[in-house]
Design goal:
Layout: H1 2-22, E1 35-36, E2 44-48, E3 51-54, H2 55-63, H3 67-72, H4 76-98, H5 105-127, H6 136-145, E4 151-152, E5 155-164, H7 171-189, H8 194-201, E6 213-218, H9 224-230, E7 242-244, E8 247-257, E9 260-261, H10 264-294
Helix pairs in contact: 1-4, 6-10, 7-8
Length: about 300
């Protein structure tokens, strides 16, 4: 059983290595072989048979990773482990070629698909360089058309009293909790001090000592059962008890900051990014349609 476990671990690690290295294939030097050992020793980071991996090749592979992975690979130990993993893929690939596995029709198709996928990405990356950046007029037109998407959310500052009542509470327990909440509400409606009544009735241990102060929050930060009634209230308004999955709440809205239209200078970078993405999507779709016509694509 221990041997089987080690085999499974070995295969798992190999699968991980392959997945890791495939992600760099799109901009890497060909992974099938190394580089002929005719380069200066200073540039060589690894050698296998008559082949070598050079520092420049390794750098190209590493640049394919997200910034956080690149940062990790600055560590000498991490980089060495990566090189060891790369070598395992290279020597296994070489052995597979000796066995003519790359000539197997099914495998050859997969290799061809991968090659074409690499070329597609390289071609499109090169082609989109011709797309001009958005002009000031483009930016202003886009912003005006999407102004309603650039609004700050409504914020509310409030205090609350929570009389706990879990969803699975018995009918009797729910009735008792509601009665307790109603009692607290009547005291508040009669002019009672919210802070004192919160200390007396609230089961929210995090806020009862501060008068039930919830601070400043927006709707998305709260469960819908809480946000919907509270964000329909006005500044200074006291709610009647209402139920959420946590129990019965009484809320006092102390402040309400309405949504505000953001200005173009505040969101210019986001607008430019959205226009760039939109232009790239349009260009790629158009280019693919052009290529379909050029190569007379037909699907039966």
């Amino acid at each position: 059983m221990k041997g089987n476990s080690n085999i499974r671990k070995c295969f798992f690690r190999l699968e991980f290595i392959v997945a890791l290295l495939v992600t760099t294939a799109f901009i890497s030097v060909p992974a099938a072989t190394g580089h002929a050992a005719d380069t200066g020793e200073k540039d060589v980071v690894a050698r296998w048979g008559s082949e070598v991996i050079t520092k420049s090749e390794l750098d190209i592979r590493i640049k394919a990773y997200p910034p956080e992975i690149q940062e990790r690979l600055k560590d000498p130990g991490q980089k060495k482990q990566y090189v060891e993993s790369l070598l395992q893929v290279l020597i296994t690939g070489a052995e597979a070629r000796e066995m003519k596995l790359d000539k197997d029709p099914e495998i050859a198709i997969r290799i061809d698909d991968m090659t074409n996928s690499i070329l597609l990405q390289a071609y499109m990356n090169k082609a989109i360089e011709s797309i001009p950046p958005p002009t000031d007029t483009d930016i202003e037109i886009f912003f005006e058309a999407h102004k309603n998407e650039y609004l700050t959310p409504v914020f509310i500052r409030a205090q609350h009293i929570l009389v706990e009542c879990k969803p699975d509470a018995t009918p009797a327990a729910q009735k008792a909790a509601e009665a307790r909440a109603q009692k607290a509400y009547k005291e508040l409606a009669a002019g009672g001090n919210f802070k004192k009544i919160a200390a007396k009735y609230s089961d929210d241990t995090e806020t009862k000592a501060t008068g039930g102060d919830l601070g400043l929050f927006q709707a998305e930060q709260m469960v819908p059962e809480f946000s919907q009634p509270v964000f329909s209230m006005k500044k200074g308004e006291l709610s009647k008890p209402f139920k959420t999955p946590f129990g019965f709440h009484i809320v006092l809205v102390n402040d309400l900051i309405p949504e505000r239209q953001m200005q173009l200078q505040d969101v210019r970078d986001d607008v430019v990014t959205r226009i760039d993405n939109q232009n790239r999507e349009t260009f790629i779709y158009s280019e693919l349609e052009r290529l379909k016509n050029k190569y007379k694509v037909e699907i039966y």
